[in-house]
Specification:
The chain is an alpha+beta fold. The protein has eleven helices and 20 strands.
Length: 375
């Protein structure tokens, strides 16, 4: 099916022609859903400790970045121009933003990250920068000019608020107006400047880096139990060069580290845990007055089960991953759980018939999902 918001392309055509290949500009293709925040509501989010927010201000060619949470007094002192307030994870706090994010579920959920909103005063932006991941820029109210440069090896300014490009040489310029969409592949340099108070919604994607996965693997192996051994050096002779690391200690370290082993199963478990682990500022909100187990099971049969926006349920083979933890359900439960993971919402009766009531009740009590009466 062709999608107006993708410039008349089907999702399959978009992925074949543009995904990680070249930008896409789609004019007047999307409508902002009801419920998106105004400036006052955005400021209210930026003062909260459970919301990731940043403020970038510009003076000439210099950018300064501050991290939230902010005080209302700080936000009240913002000048008339040359600043941008960024709030990440808008989908975790507003249902309409979560709906925006799910429009992009033609890309695997393991790659979807969040919705970031940028409110920029006239002249506001964050400077020419480069992202290592794909991004969709959805223009809300206001107008913003984007200057673009195709991917290359950029020289980055040290200690800048973002990965600011020192040698930016744009070769394209695009004016985005309300309803326009701009897709940029990873590595493209871009610089957006607001011409008037401007709202931009960025759909970001996760792209795990090798170094991050390596550190996560070390944590996983440490949790599982790394090989242990105690260094001994009987028959030690007086040191002729006390500062020199001896061959015996080097050989010991080599033997111990060679005993570290992992399998494909370990990698799959690590990856699933890593991809579903909530970000540090994410907290789950258990129900204030949770239903007793029996009442929950009765309501489950006539309700839909909806994953909380903060929850991510993925699977690989027989193993499932929820919010950094993994488990292997029995064979009859895997189909309904996979359907819940794919759709993020499923009839509770199907899950109850599979014998998942107790597991779902535990997730409900922890705030990972909710019941919604079917209409």
């Amino acid at each position: 099916m062709r999608e107006r918001w993708l410039g008349g392309l089907s999702t399959r055509e978009f992925l074949r022609r543009h995904w990680q290949k070249r930008p896409l500009l789609a004019r007047a293709g999307w409508s902002a859903p009801a419920g998106l925040p105004d400036a006052a509501r955005l400021f209210s989010l930026a003062v909260r400790s459970d919301v990731e927010s940043r403020l970038v201000t510009r003076r000439g060619e210099r950018w300064t970045g501050e991290h939230g949470p902010f005080t209302r007094a700080r936000l009240g002192r913002l000048p008339a121009r040359d600043w941008t307030l960024l709030v990440n994870g808008l989908n975790l706090h507003l249902a309409c933003a979560e709906q925006m994010l799910r429009r992009f579920d033609f890309v695997p959920q393991a790659r979807l990250d969040d919705v970031m909103v940028s409110l920029a005063a006239p002249g506001g932006g964050v400077g020419p920068h480069v992202d290592s991941y794909d991004v969709f820029l959805l223009q809300g109210p206001g107008r913003r000019v984007w200057r673009l440069e195709r991917a290359r090896r950029f020289r980055v300014i040290a200690d800048a608020p973002l990965k600011l490009i020192a040698d930016f040489r744009p070769d394209q310029e695009v004016l985005l107006e309300p309803g326009d969409l701009l897709y940029l592949p990873p590595g493209w340099g871009h610089d957006g400047v607001a011409l008037a108070p401007s709202w931009t919604y960025s759909i970001g994607f996760r792209a795990p880096r090798g170094a991050e996965l390596s550190l996560a693997m070390l944590d996983y192996l440490h949790e599982r139990g790394l090989p242990d051994a105690q260094y001994r050096d009987p028959g030690l002779a007086p040191a002729a060069h006390p500062a020199q690391i001896g061959a015996r200690m080097t050989d010991f370290a080599l033997r111990v580290t060679r005993r570290i082993r992992w399998t494909e199963r370990d990698v799959q478990r690590l990856l699933g845990r890593y991809l579903t682990l909530p970000k540090p500022q994410v907290t789950f909100r258990p129900p204030r007055r949770p239903l007793p187990r029996a009442a929950f099971l009765r309501r489950l049969a006539r309700s839909d089960v909806a994953l909380d926006a903060r929850s991510l349920l993925l699977y690989r083979g027989a193993r499932f991953f929820l919010n950094g933890e993994d488990f292997v359900p029995c064979a009859g439960q895997r189909g309904p759980l996979a359907a819940l993971a794919d759709r993020r919402r499923l009839a509770g009766a199907a899950l109850a018939r599979a014998g998942l009531g107790d597991r779902l009740y535990a997730w409900y009590r922890s705030g990972c999902l909710r019941l919604e009466l079917r209409t």
